[in-house]
Amino acid sequence: MENSPLSWFGFTAFVIGLLLLDLLVFNRKAHEIRLREALGWSAFWVALSLGFNLLVYRYMGRQAGLQWLTGYLVEKALSVDNLFVFLLIFNYFKVPAQYQHRVLFWGVLGALVLRAIFILAGAALLARFHFLMYLLGAFLVYTGIRMGIGGGGPEIDPEHNPIVRFLSRRLPITRHIESGAFFVRKDGLRFATPLLVVLVMVETTDVVFAADSIPAILAITRDTFVVFTSNVFALLGLRAMYFALASLMRLFHYLNYGLALVLAFIGAKILLERVLPMSMPVSLGVVGAILLLSVVASLIWPKAEEDSL
User: Fold this and answer.
1) Is 304 helix (H, G, I), strand (E, B) or coil?
2) CB atoms within 10 A of CB 239
């Protein structure tokens, strides 16, 4: 295994096979995914990810293996913010539970294509203009401080999303969700359904969060194969993690502050690389410790329930 056309082709074919198996076999019929099923799928994706990490470690070396694991952990942790926003979007548009998996499936598929473009473009720029690494480091420190002060990621307002407003002006949209379809035909005319609007919201949300996660992983390594594959595995498990944590996410209210520290740490590591170089095992240990402490702190000091009016 190496960063070669054959590796890219084999990995792409493998991912397409997994997605087709998911869509056409395991989730062919729309249904509500309950906690037990979601936990089972989450365990499957984590195990598959760690198995691939072992292959990277064995065939690409120890450094690449540790970089892959660090990138996977960072992307997985940053994806938690996506889950909060997905929950907001689904609640806002009152998407029935049995159709949420369908939206997330196509949302993740679109995200994979967008991430590939962002990663390849970002890596090419960094390879040609090395000074951009320091701008990248400063951006991550700024993002971490902004996230820490704000206590979380960007808020998504469905009503004022410019892409959704553009879509609403250009396409006739039905008032109700029609059996999980994105388009329906009525009286000979083609109508979009609110489910298409939800899908657009999910895709634009991923673009917003990619602005943080892609720079963070490119700061860890510029090996595009390592960056992309770690991103893909984190995103593939995102749907199962959403259903598993949808009712439990508020337990981890300190995780946003942990993510802020992770981004600031990675940015500072870049800016100080010539003065204070840090090995990958130490970097991975710091990232893991920050995330673990933020989760433990959330469980020890749970968030007080707001008084109902």
Assistant:
1) coil
2) 25
Residue 295 lies in a domain: yes
Q: How far is CA 244 from the centre of its chain?
A: 15
103 by Cβ neighbours in 10 Å (0-12 / 13-18 / 19+) ranks as buried
Q: How many domains does the chain have?
A: 1
Residue 259: closest CA among 125, 140, 121, 134: 140
* Cβ 240 vs Cβ 42: under 8 Å: yes
How far apart (Å, rounded) are the C-alpha atoms in residues 90 and 205?
13
191: β partners: 184
Give the integer Cα–Cα distance in Å for 182 and 184: 7
Q: Could you tell me which of 104, 120, 96 has the C-alpha nearest to residue 231?
A: 120
CA distance 259 to 285: 14
Residue 307 lies in a domain: no
Amino acid at 265: F
What is the tens place of the pLDDT at every residue in 11-52?
Answer: 888 888 888 887 676 666 766 677 678 788 888 999 999 999
Would residue 309 count as lying in a domain?
no
Contact predicate 229/11, CB 8 Å: yes
Q: Considering the domain boundaries, does residue 308 fall inside one?
A: no
pLDDT, tens digit (0-9, with 9 covering 90-100), for 252-269: 778 778 878 887 887 788
Q: What is the pTM of this model?
A: 0.69
CA-atom Rg of the chain in angstroms? 20
Question: Residue 123 belongs to what domain range?
Answer: 5-300
Range list of β-strands (E), the chain: 183-186, 189-192
- 73 in Cβ contact with 138 (< 8 Å): no
